[in-house]
Amino acid sequence: MISEIKDLVRSARDRDPAATNAFEILFTYSGIHAIINHRIAHWFYRHRIPFIPRCISQASRFFTGIEIHPGAKIGHGIFMDHGMGVVIGETSEIGDNVTIFQGATLGGTGKEKGKRHPNIGDNTIVSAGAKILGSIEIGKNVIIGAGAVVIKSVPDNCTVVGIPGKIVKVGGEKILSDASHKMHLPDPVSDIISDCCARIDSLEKELKKQKNKKDSKEK
Questions:
Q1: Among 94, 98, 122, 150, whose CB has the most other CB atoms within 10 angstroms?
Q2: Is the whole model's pTM more than 0.90, yes or no?
Q3: What is the pLDDT of residues 23-42, one digit of tens each?
Q4: From CA 46, how far away is CA 43, in angstroms rounded?
Q5: Where are the beta strands (DSSP E) in 2-130?
């Protein structure tokens, strides 16, 4: 456990520019507290001890704002920056040196039984508010953009953004221009406005046609 704590503190120092010293990190970073609590809960979970694992995870959620199911498998060197609102489901598997920001969710879709949460590869970054849903594979060195909703597997070395998540970079190279990427992202509000404008235009044309017919009859 001592080596685990040292590893967590080292990860925070390496990845958080606001980190000042090990003492402050250890005692004030809720992400580290949540992982330490999870390691304990996971030990009880693996040994099939009932009640205690969930009791630990729920107490940890109350104090840290981070909910990790005791069954989740989490690798070494994980760093949760801020961490508030993070949810990690029971069958999630997270690799080494993963960074997770506040509000991220590794969840299910509510349709599957058994394996129903994602696997996250090594060195992946899950940005603030991102949702990764279902039994899917996220490769190594992947960046999930803030607010993205990922429901399909992602290969290694990719960047994913949008709702639903779309791959915009592979190996650091763009596969879509900015203009093209915007066109491919769904925008339901814009679609509704465009549809309303088209209907109004059609009605105006029809009214104008009816008015012209009426005027011609009166003449």
A1: 150
A2: no
A3: 888 898 999 999 999 999 99
A4: 5
A5: 67-68, 73-74, 79-81, 87-88, 93-94, 99-101, 105-107, 119-120, 125-126
